[in-house]
Amino acid sequence: MKATEVPAIAGAYLFEPTPYADERGFFCRTFDADVVRSVGLDPDAFVQDSVSRSVRGVLRGLHLRSGAGEAKLVRCSYGKVFDAVVDLRPGSPTYLGRAFFDLSGETQATLYVPAGCAHGFQALTGTADVSYRIDRPHDPAEDVTIAFDDPELAIPWPLPVVSMSRRDREAPSLAEVLKQKES
Question: Could you tell me which of 108, 127, 128 has the C-alpha nearest to residue 27?
C-alpha cells in the first residue's frame, strides 16, 4: 500500500493498495495501520465505520462537521464516484483549496480527509458503495452542509444531479457558512 500526499489539501492523503488479481477476481488490503501511522496519523483514532449506497447521478455533499470537525477515510468499495474535498480550515496553507478524485471499486484507493474540510461525491455508476471510517461518533447537531453548486467553489460535477437529500438541495452558500462560523 502506498500513501501519497494531496498537494491541494494540506494533511490529506491518498492510500493506494496493491491488488492481487487472478482468475477468481482480486484481493487487496484496504487499511494498514502501519502505513497510516507512517504518515503521522493515528490508526486507532477511527471509531465508526459507515457505508452509503448511491445510484448513478446521486450527489452527496458538501458536508463537514462543526466544533472539532471530523477526519475520515473514504473509499468507494463498489462502482465509481467523483469525489471532491474543499479545505475550510482558516489557518491552513491550502485554505479554500480543492481536490478531486475518481474513487472506484477497481482501485480500492482510500482518501484521508482532514477535519475541517468539506467533502462530497457523485455516483458515476449504476450502483456505488462508499465506505467511511470517521474519527469520532457522528452527532447530527454538528452537521454542516454547503451548496454543491456554489459558484465560488466551481466544482466540476461530471453528471447532471438526479437526486440528493433535501438538506443538500437547500444548503447555504460557502459565504453564508463561513459567515456563520465567524459569529
Answer: 108
13 given a catalytic annotation: no
Please provide the DSSP assignment of 6-54 as one string: -TTSTT-EEEE---EEETTEEE--S--HHHHHHTT--GGG--EEEEEEE
> Cα separation of 129 and 12, whole Å?
21
* Residue 63 is a catalytic residue: yes
80-87 sheet: strands from edge to edge: 98-104, 80-87, 117-123, 59-65, 143-145
Query: Could you say which of 13, 20, 63, 112 is catalytic?
Result: 63
What's CA 132's distance to the chain center, in Å? 8
pLDDT per position as a tens digit, 62-105: 999 998 899 999 999 999 999 999 999 999 999 999 999 999 99
Reduced to 3 states (helix: H, G, I; strand: E, B; else coil), residue 100 is strand
